[in-house]
Amino acid sequence: MSETYDFLFKFLVIGSAGTGKSCLLHQFIENKFKQDSNHTIGVEFGSRVVNVGGKTVKLQIWDTAGQERFRSVTRSYYRGAAGALLVYDITSRETYNALTNWLTDARTLASPNIVIILCGNKKDLDADREVTFLEASRFAQENELMFLETSALTGENVEEAFLKCARTILNKIESGELDPERMGSGIQYGDASLRQLRQPRGSAAQGKQPCNC
Amino acid sequence: MMERAMEQLNVQLNRLTRSLRRARTVELPEDNETAVYTLMPMVMADQHRSVSELLMNSKFDVNYAFGRVKRSLLHIAANCGSVECLVLLLKRGANPNYQDISGCTPLHLAARNGQKKCMGKLLEYNADVNICNNEGLTAIHWLAVNGRTELLHDLVQHVMNVDVEDAMGQTALHVACQNGHKTTVLCLLESGADINRPNVSGATPLYFACSHGQRDTAQILLQRGAKYLPDKNGVTPLDLCVQGGYGETCEILIQHHSRLFQTLIQMTQNDDIKENMLRQVLEHVSQQSDSNYQRILTSLGEVATTNGHKLLSLSSNFEAQMKSLLRIVRIFCHVFRLGPSSPNNGNDMGYNGNKTPRSQVFKPLELLWHSLDEWLVLISTELEKSRGDVTTSSGSEIASLLLKQREVDPSAPEANSLSTTVLAPTLDPEVAMKTSEAYASSEDVISMTANRLSAVIQAFYMCCSCQMPQGMTSPRFIEFVCRHDEVLKCFVTRNPKIIFNHFHFLLECPELMSRFMHIIKAQPFKDRSEWFYEHLLAGQPDTDMVHRPVNENDILLIHRESIFRSSCEVVSKSTNEKLKQGIAVRFHGEEGMGQGVVREWFDILSNEIINPDYALFTQSADGTTFQPNSNSSVNPDHLNYFRFAGQILGLALYHRQLVNIYFTRSFYKHILGIPVNYQDVSSIDPEYAKNLQWILDNDISDLGLELTFSVETDVFGAMEEVPLKPGGTCIQVTQENKAEYVQLVTELRMTRAIQPQINAFLQGFHTFIPPSLIQLFDEYELELLLSGMPEIDVMDWKRNTEYTSGYDLQEPVIQWFWEVVESLTQEERVLLLQFVTGSSRVPHGGFAFLMGGSGLQKFTIAAVPYSSNLLPTSSTCINMLKLPEYPSKEILRDRLLVALHCGSYGYTMA
């Protein structure tokens, strides 16, 4: 039987080559660090059902290649994304400097309501750090992004990054700011009616109680 | 004493008269078993007076159970509705709750058969309505199964628990829903039946209604707030509706649970669901309103786009994603073609009633086509780059490593998603480092994405075509193929299977086909013929046609003595569609039918077609092959017969029946639309062909041939001057234009002379075999398809072979040669024969009758000095194989096979 969920969100993972986008996705889905990782060719796909604020949400995640040569291919996946992880490498200023370009792409090509979270990856390599937490968080603030430093190696903040993004989208739906029915919103209803009926009262408690952050 | 005897006699006499008068016994036998069979027919006929009379003075036990099922007479009365007898029996103390072997009481039987009065009386005599039979069924179950609402209404008041369950946990409501008895369902609900009661496997009344597509019942349940619940295995009512293809019931479900719409759409991704059922449901729902139509297509488009994007992710499962994408797109196209429901714009391809473009529904898919386009552009850039790489040799180390990798693993292009993961561990660490540092090589990107992109192209084609009238290719798609011509050619050159798996559009679009023809023609015959049949029979319900049982009216009734004419008649009477579906033949006055008779019919008929009496076909010079007779017009109806001949050949090919005719090489070319050349002339006039060859081989400038572009022909005894081209009689043939002359004169001899016949033949042939499909083959293969693989007797071949220029039978090379021939497959032997003699067939009578350019010419093997990589060559006009003196059998075999597979078709002047 097909899995059931309340909502489906389409997510993007974008950022320069070698920042660890695929490793973040792998860590999020498999709870493991991906050892011998190759450059992504085109766009990879992963999905996971998570519980956010008492709702089951299926995240459909499109992990894009960072290399310049794939740029036009990956751009064609932007449309209809509800959320995005914008990733840079804290040990590489070059990847940080490229953020503006990535951001412009996301804001122009994806839905205008797209929720973006900035991820400073490779937090575990603090010794080689080239981008400070402070400047990155200032950048995030200026551009109305959420911000986290993550480590795909240790798994630190990986789950949080995805969940935070999902939670924000969910809040926007509940506040009416986002309309899931609108085409290209990157959001779909699952067959939640079925799920609720199948587990009558009580069993919903297994998920966390609504948290309105 | 006497008196007593008299009295007894009187009693007996009395009894006898009574018995005779009533035509039955008047006294019950002593034992119950015999008595009960006396009574049973009377009870069944409700002859209550007789029964009463018989029972009067008897000791019969009214509760006596008899027969295999151990029923009492009360059961019988209740079952048959014999209400008077029933009352009589009850009065005499029959037990109203007596249960037979299966646990049924008389009330059960009365309820099952709807015996209203009997039920009433049984209840009067305190029959228990709550008794279950062995399966747990009660009287209300029986009433509910058969929808006896009125009776149920009466009975239900006496019932303790309207939700009484049978052994499977089924209530009366379950069974009423399953059988779709609307009023019964309402009655049960009004009597307080539990609308959501699950049976032992968790199936609810709604579940039962859906499992049998009981639309109205489902409607009632949903209106009364029935919950939408799956069973214990997670099977939902919607699943059941889709499995059964119950569109109307699905529609009701969606009306009440709007989220189920998305679920229904998502089901298109589920491989376990039957596509045709799901399609049927979606088609129905789409027809309910214009908004449904739009919504279904838009949603399907979104699902297809997501699927397509997943397919383009290299780590996804290629097979599963591809099948899923193509299934969704197929359903999409079907629903789209059906059009919106409003009848006034049903034929309007562009706009629906609201003036919203119907093409709007394609919008979500545009994302996928956009990605496809970008991917192909990327590949094209990569191709250019890899060309650059070769010259600068930068990164060629890695490229060659990758190439080697691919050679080791022949499945790589198929399972290309594996190649990256396989790659890393097998390389030594240093190189692996470099690989991951460097770009994934261009080669790699192409080989890994080719299959996936091709499948998306196939989907794109389907979507483009469903907006076009049948049989037309969309300009957008043509433009697309032209734009990406280079990349697509690169794909199919690297992996020709792509053509057969995904590029079906080529078969429907000759303009595009021509671009790929050279690649397709280079593919194995087997692949092409499979593709051919797959497409030829596409849309036919069953591919194994000839065995299909056929309607009596569709049997072709043939008169053996006039097989040609009667076949022509019945075939022209039948429709092409019927003939495509299947053929059954019966000879007049004979019983036989089936495959054998069909084969015999084709066999005899094909012999008749070339029967010289009809003057339709003439023999070629060597007497084994045929071509249309240029003088066939002696038969005034000849063109109709040619069309018929074409139909028969087409029909045979369509149904994979072999015919017993071999045509000349040039006629096969005519069927294929391939231009003939001067060598084809040799099949009808070998001497003349040699002369043409001579003109071409020698300088004719100073010979004074005085030839013009015209010929004299003999038309029924009168000589006529026929120009080869306008004004040809005045144009001299020179060294410069002799090639044109030879071609024109060849066309005159081979084509123009029989053009009307060819055209008529093709008209018939094309009714079954589209020209776009047959062009997949060359003339040799067409012969193989039509007439089959000839048997080749190697012993006979060896016996009739001559050796020259140093070879003899004792030579090791010759020994090896025959050993190799023995080991070849039948197909390869045919290729060898074709390679050397130009014909795939052994002449009638065997190799001893092999014909050369001028009379009998045995198969000959000539020695050629060996040099490395030298391949065998042949001279077909003298049936000579020029076999280099190979140093070993292995090399001989290898080189011979290379020559056969590359060189058996097409002539090179070696």
From TrEMBL, chain A:
Where is the protein situated, by its record's location annotation? Cell membrane; Early endosome membrane
Biological process terms in GO annotation: protein transport; Rab protein signal transduction
Reaction catalysed by this enzyme: GTP + H2O = GDP + phosphate + H(+)
Chief place of localization: membrane
Q: Membrane topology for this entry?
A: Lipid-anchor
The protein's matches in SUPFAM superfamilies, at most eight in alphabetical order, are given as: P-loop containing nucleoside triphosphate hydrolases
The prosthetic group or cofactor this protein requires is: Mg(2+)
The family database entries (InterPro entries) matched by this protein are listed as: P-loop_NTPase, Rab4, Rab_GTPases_membrane_traffic, Small_GTP-bd, Small_GTPase
Q: What is one cellular component GO term in this UniProt entry?
A: early endosome membrane
Q: Which residues cross the membrane?
A: none
Keywords from the UniProt entry: Endosome, GTP-binding, Hydrolase, Lipoprotein, Magnesium, Membrane, Metal-binding, Methylation, Nucleotide-binding, Prenylation, Protein transport, Transport
Under NCBIfam families, the record lists: small_GTP
Family designation: Belongs to the small GTPase superfamily. Rab family.
What job does this protein perform? The small GTPases Rab are key regulators of intracellular membrane trafficking, from the formation of transport vesicles to their fusion with membranes. Rabs cycle between an inactive GDP-bound form and an active GTP-bound form that is able to recruit to membranes different sets of downstream effectors directly responsible for vesicle formation, movement, tethering and fusion.
> What is the name of this protein?
Ras-related protein Rab-4
Source organism per entry reads Chanos chanos
Automatic annotation (TrEMBL), chain B:
**Where is it mainly found?**
cytoplasm
Pfam families associated with the record: Ank_2 (PF12796), Ank_4 (PF13637), HECT (PF00632)
Which positions carry the signal peptide feature in this UniProt record?
none
**Reaction(s) catalysed (UniProt annotation):** S-ubiquitinyl-[E2 ubiquitin-conjugating enzyme]-L-cysteine + [acceptor protein]-L-lysine = [E2 ubiquitin-conjugating enzyme]-L-cysteine + N(6)-ubiquitinyl-[acceptor protein]-L-lysine
UniProt-annotated location(s): Cytoplasm; Endoplasmic reticulum; Golgi apparatus, Golgi stack membrane
Q: Which CDD domains match?
A: HECTc
Q: Which InterPro entries match?
A: Ankyrin_rpt, Ankyrin_rpt-contain_sf, E3_ubiq-protein_ligase, HECT_dom, Hect_E3_ubiquitin_ligase
Question: What's the protein called, per UniProt?
Answer: E3 ubiquitin-protein ligase HACE1
* Source organism of the structure: Chanos chanos
Which lineage is the organism of this entry classified under, starting from the top rank?
A: Eukaryota, Metazoa, Chordata, Craniata, Vertebrata
